[in-house]
Write a structure and sequence with these properties.
565 residues; Immunoglobulin-like; 0% helix
C-alpha cells in the first residue's frame, strides 16, 4: 500500500506547510525523499504575520508537517514522518506533538512525542499494515506548549502497493462466495479469458461426494449465468466423485479431471474407482460433443484409478495424469481426442502406465512444444521422492530423457506445479518436506531441461532452492506458483504460525531463483487454509481455499487476490 500525507490547513496562524520537507524512510519501498528529508528545512525568509488588531495573538510556535511523503506496505517496513516546530523568540520551552485520527491499520510506534526546547524536530515512525483500506483520510497533527494548542489538518492517502493483499476486493481483501452447498472442497482453480474464477473440487461427505464446479465473477461473487446460481454439481453414478484438476479452453468451455465410482462410460459394473474426465459448456451445461454426455469414465482392470492433473495440447487433445492401483500404485496417463474418444495413436489404446518403483503417483503433466508430455509425480524408489518422465507423442517413454536430482537435495519433494519456459526449460514447483533435525516444510523450485531432464545448474543453487515466508521457520506448504512478466516467480503457501494456526503466505523470487524479492504472510480475520493459487492475465495472484470465521468451526470457501509485484 502506498500512503501520501498532504497538509490541508491549520488552526492558529503562521503555519505554512509548503515549507516542510517530506520524511525520510527506513524501508526500501517508501518513496524517494529529498536530500534534506528528516531535518529542518532551509530558512525561506518567510515572516510570521502580525496578529490582527484587537484579535487573538499569534501562537508562540507553529507546527509544520510533511508535504506529500509516501510509503509502501512491505514486511517490516517503517517510514519516518518528521514534523518541524518553529518557536518565536519569546518561547524556548518544550512542545508536545500528537497524531490524531489515524485510520485503522495505519500505526505509529508512538502517537505522542516531545520536542525539547533546544530542538525543533520530532519524527514519528509509521507502519502501514496490509489490511489498511484505500482512500483519503483526514488526520491531525496537534502541538501543545506554553498552554497553547495548535492543530494542523493533514490528508492521508492510502493506495495499493506491490504484492499486497487487494483490500478493495471482497470484504477487506477476503471474498466469501455463498455457494449454498455442504462440505465444499476446492482442489483446483482456473481463470477464464474474461477474468472469471473457476473453482473445482467436490461437495458432500466422504464416500458420497459429487463433483463441484463454481464460476465467480471477477469480484469474487457467484456468476448466476453459470449452472445454478453460479455452481454445477455432477453426480456420476451415485457414488463417490470428485475432481482434482481444471482448465479453461479459449472459448470458455471447462475441462475437469478426477475420479468416480463408475464403469467405463457407464454405471453398470462399478467395481473400481475410474478415471473421470468432464467437459462443460461456457454456461455450465454438460458438453454433449465430448462423447455423448460430456462425462467420460475409464475403469482400469488393474484396480482403482484417479486423475490428479490435466493439460490440453496444441491439437486440442485432453491429457490426464494420475494413479492406478496395481499390486502397488503406478503412474498413469490418458489422452482423449477433442471428441472425448480415447486417442488410439497414444500407446495403442490411449492409456499408458508404468511402475516407476514401489508406490508411485502421477501428480502433474505439461505438454511441451512438440506435444510430447512431461509427467511429474512421486515414487517410493527414490529418497527425495520426485519422479520426472517424458513421453513421446505416440505414448512411448522417451528413454533419452533422464532426471536425477542435485546431490545436495535432502527434503522429500512432491510436485505441485509445472511451467514451460523459453528455450524448452521447465520450472517445477514442489512441496519440500524435511525429516530428522530441522524437520519442517518449505516451498521448492527446480528448473530442468524439458528435452533431456538435466537439472539447470544456472538456477538457484545448482538447479534447486526452497523458500519459506519467515526466515529460519520451515512452516510453509506450496499451494501454487505463477510466472511474472520478466520471469520472476510468485509462490503462494499455506503457512502455519508457532501455535499451528493456518494462514496465507506469499513469496516472490527472482527469475534465476537466487533472490527473494518479497516474503510475508497475511493476517486475515479468522483462519485461512489456502489450497490453490494462480496468476491471472492482469498480474494479480489469485488464491482460493477454505476459511473459518472467528469463533466458528465450519470451513467455507474463500477467494483473495494480491496486487501485481
Amino acid at each position: 500500500m502506498l500512503v501520501a500525507l498532504v497538509a490541508l490547513g491549520a488552526t492558529g496562524m503562521g503555519c505554512s506547510s509548503d515549507e516542510s520537507p517530506p520524511p525520510s524512510s527506513s524501508g526500501g519501498d517508501a518513496g524517494t525523499p529529498r536530500p534534506d528529508a528528516g531535518g529542518p528545512p532551509p530558512d525561506a525568509g518567510t515572516e510570521e504575520p502580525a496578529p490582527d488588531a484587537g484579535g487573538e495573538p499569534a501562537p508562540a510556535f507553529t507546527v509544520l508537517p510533511p508535504s506529500e511523503p509516501t510509503l509502501r506496505f512491505a514486511p517490516r517496513n517503517t517510514t519516518r514522518f518528521s514534523v518541524q516546530v518553529r518557536r518565536d523568540d519569546s518561547f524556548t520551552g518544550d512542545v508536545t506533538l500528537t497524531l490524531e485520527g489515524l485510520p485503522a491499520h495505519v500505526l505509529a510506534d508512538a502517537l505522542t512525542l516531545s520536542v525539547p526546547g533546544a530542538e525543533n524536530l520530532a519524527t514519528f515512525e509509521l507502519h502501514v499494515e496490509e489490511a489498511a483500506a484505500y482512500g483519503r483520510f483526514p488526520i491531525r497533527v496537534v502541538g501543545e506548549g506554553r498552554g497553547e494548542r495548535v492543530e494542523v489538518s493533514v490528508t492521508l492517502e492510502v493506495q495499493a502497493g506491490q504484492a499486497a493483499l487487494d483490500v478493495s476486493f471482497g470484504a477487506q481483501g477476503l471474498g466469501l462466495p455463498a455457494l449454498g452447498l455442504p462440505a465444499v472442497s476446492i482442489n483446483a482453480m482456473a481463470v477464464t479469458p474474461d477474468g472469471k474464477w473457476i473453482l473445482a473440487g467436490s461437495t458432500g461427505s466422504a464416500g458420497l461426494r459429487d463433483v463441484l464446479v463454481a464460476r465467480l465473477l471477477p469480484d469474487g461473487t457467484p456468476d448466476v449465468s453459470f449452472g445454478t446460481q453460479g455452481t454445477r454439481v455432477i453426480d456420476v453414478c451415485d457414488g463417490d466423485d470428485y475432481v482434482d484438476a481444471v482448465t479453461v479452453l479459449s472459448d470458455g468451455r471447462v475441462v475437469l479431471a478426477g475420479g468416480a465410482i463408475a464403469d467405463t462410460n457407464s454405471c453398470t459394473a462399478r467395481n473400481y474407482q475410474s478415471l473421470l474426465l468432464v467437459r462443460l459448456t461456457d454456461t455450465g451445461a454438460l458438453d454433449t460433443t465430448f462423447g455423448t454426455t460430456g462425462v467420460r469414465t475409464f475403469q482400469l482392470s488393474a484396480g482403482n484409478a484417479t486423475l490428479h492433473a490435466l493439460t490440453v495440447d496444441s491439437r486440442g487433445r485432453v491429457v490426464g495424469a494420475g494413479t492406478v492401483q496395481n499390486t502397488d500404485r503406478d503412474q498413469v496417463l490418458v489422452r482423449l481426442l477433442p471428441t472425448g474418444q480415447l486417442d488410439t495413436s497414444f500407446s495403442a489404446d490411449g492409456l499408458a502406465w508404468e511402475d516407476v518403483g514401489g508406490d508411485d503417483e502421477g501428480l502433474g503433466v505439461i505438454a511441451l512444444a512438440d506435444d510430447s508430455l512431461l509427467l511429474a509425480g512421486t515414487t517410493a524408489s527414490l529418497n527425495h521422492g520426485l519422479s520426472l518422465r517424458r513421453y513421446q507423442v505416440n505414448g512411448e517413454r522417451d528413454r533419452a530423457f533422464s532426471y536425477s536430482p542435485p546431490a545436495y537435495v535432502t527434503p522429500r519433494l512432491t510436485p505441485r506445479t509445472l511451467h514451460l519456459l523459453e528455450g524448452g526449460k521447465v520450472l517445477v514447483g514442489t512441496r519440500a518436506v524435511f525429516s530428522g533435525e530441522g524437520a519442517g516444510t518449505g516451498a521448492g523450485l527446480l528448473r530442468i531441461d524439458g528435452g533431456t531432464g538435466a537439472v539447470d545448474a544456472s538456477f538457484g543453487t545448482q538447479g534447486y532452492r526452497y523458500f519459506v515466508t519467515v526466515e529460519n521457520q520451515a512452516r510453509d506448504v506450496l499451494v501454487g506458483t505463477g510466472l511474472l512478466p520478466g520471469g520472476d516467480i510468485a509462490l503462494s503457501t499455506a503457512y502455519r504460525d508457532e501455535s499451528g494456526a493456518p494462514g496465507l503466505g506469499l513469496i516472490h523470487v527472482s527469475a534465476n531463483g537466487l533472490t527473494v524479492l518479497r516474503s510475508h504472510h497475511s493476517d486475515l480475520p479468522g483462519s485461512e487454509r489456502p489450497l490453490v493459487a494462480r496468476l491471472d492475465a492482469e498480474g494479480f495472484f489469485r488464491v482460493a481455499g477454505l476459511h473459518t470465521a472467528p469463533g466458528q468451526s465450519v470451513e467455507t470457501p474463500f477467494v483473495a487476490r494480491f496486487w501485481p509485484y
